[in-house]
UniProtKB/TrEMBL annotation:
PANTHER family on file: HUNTINGTIN INTERACTING PROTEIN 1
Protein name stated in the entry: Huntingtin-interacting protein 1-related protein
Annotated ranges, domain AP180 N-terminal homology (ANTH): 16-139
UniProt-listed GO biological process terms: actin filament organization; clathrin coat assembly; endocytosis
InterPro entries (UniProt xref): ANTH_dom, ENTH_VHS, Sla2_fam
GO cellular component, one term: cortical actin cytoskeleton
GO molecular function: actin filament binding; clathrin adaptor activity; clathrin light chain binding; phosphatidylinositol-3,4-bisphosphate binding; phosphatidylinositol-3,5-bisphosphate binding
Pfam families, sorted: ANTH
Amino acid sequence: MELTHKERTEMKKHMSKVLSGKEKPFDGLRARAIVLLTHRTNGAEVFLKMTQSQPLRMNRYTAWKYCNLLHTALRYGTPQILELMQQPPQQQLLYALSNYWAYHTDALCGCILEYLQLLLHKISFHQNYAFFTGALEADITKEWDLDLW
């Protein structure tokens, strides 16, 4: 089932609350609502388009919350998010963000850089070991064709 206009608006509202530039803690409840909406058809594409339109280079708090949201989506979201993040344009976005935050000397910027590198390692791990889900649960039937009977 595809995302309706109401669900897109709801996702956009939750996204603006989660990725606010204010120095507030990461809102996990709204992040879970976003992750649940990604399980709809085209939810992963809508999620990635909405996150790319955020000012990730303008505000360090937004960038930190983006890392948290992306990690939550990779872990609990639809497997399609992981597949889309393995494509070169998405990885180039994360590399560009990590290069941008590498030149800042603030302590939070260092944390953002490390978190982005962790996300890149997580994505490359899942490229190499496709039988692990985003939550690191082994699904051996995904890669290997085993007769389980």
